[in-house]
Design a protein that fits this description.
Blueprint (H helix, E strand, L loop, with lengths): L2 E5 L9 H5 L4 E3 L5 E3 L7 H10 L5 E5 L1
Antiparallel strand pairs: 1-4, 2-3
């Protein structure tokens, strides 16, 4: 089963680290919070690096 990244925006602090690591998948929205805009834009390993780097652990995998 495929996995897709998901951001819990209620926990996001807007640090932009995920965007710096993986801009092909993550971007900042109008509220200054991270969002997934291209869930298949990068290799799973690169997305995992962004997930693992999130200081508040608000990014996770969901089953597609």
């Amino acid at each position: 089963m495929a996995r897709i990244p998901c951001v819990d925006q209620s926990e996001c602090t807007g640090c932009e680290l995920c965007v710096e690591i993986c801009p092909e998948v993550f971007r900042m929205n109008e509220e200054g919070l991270s969002e997934v805009y291209n869930r298949e834009g990068a290799a799973e390993e690169k997305i995992k690096d962004a997930i693992d780097s999130c200081p508040v652990e608000c990014i996770s995998w969901e089953n597609a």
